[in-house]
Amino acid sequence: MAQAESRLRVSDRDGITTVEFVDRNILDEANIQAISEEITSLIDRTDAPKLLISFANVDHLSSAALGALITINHRVRDRAGQLRLANIDPQIYEVFVITRLNKLFQIHDTTDEAVSSFS
Fold it and tell me: Which residues, in sequence order, are CB contacts of 29 under 8 Å at separation 6+?
């Protein structure tokens, strides 16, 4: 089993897949590509996926990471699913506000708030 080490911690609870990042900085293009592919495979496992991405450990995000999030959001919507983001550092959240991505994503302060927002 020669599989690349995952950059994600994934857990499933009550039909909701929660993804947390291992890395504090999500800046490297190759890592972002690997993360994006891994999340896409999680989305594709089920119809109407419920995906929660937690940024609890993340200090820095690149614009490429934001682009990957937009692609992930489209993929979830194409499968009639729901995506929530949680635990975003205030400095990173500012970038979401500046880029107006806070209007695109449902962002919650905590993982518990995000979990309870799924329908």
Answer: 62, 64
Please give the structure tokens belonging to residue 25: 């900085």
The structure's pTM equals 0.93
Say what the alpha-carbon torsion angle 58, 31, 74, 109 is, to the nearest 10 degrees: -10
For the chain, 119 residues long, give each residue's pLDDT as a single digit of tens. 445 578 899 999 999 999 999 988 888 999 999 999 999 999 999 999 999 999 999 999 999 999 999 999 999 999 999 999 999 999 999 999 999 999 999 999 999 999 999 98
Question: Long-range contacts of range 74-77, CB-CB < 8 Å, 24 or more positions apart?
Answer: 75/40, 75/43, 75/44, 76/43, 76/49, 76/51
Q: Decide: helix, strand or coil at residue 13.
A: strand
CA 117 to chain centre: 16
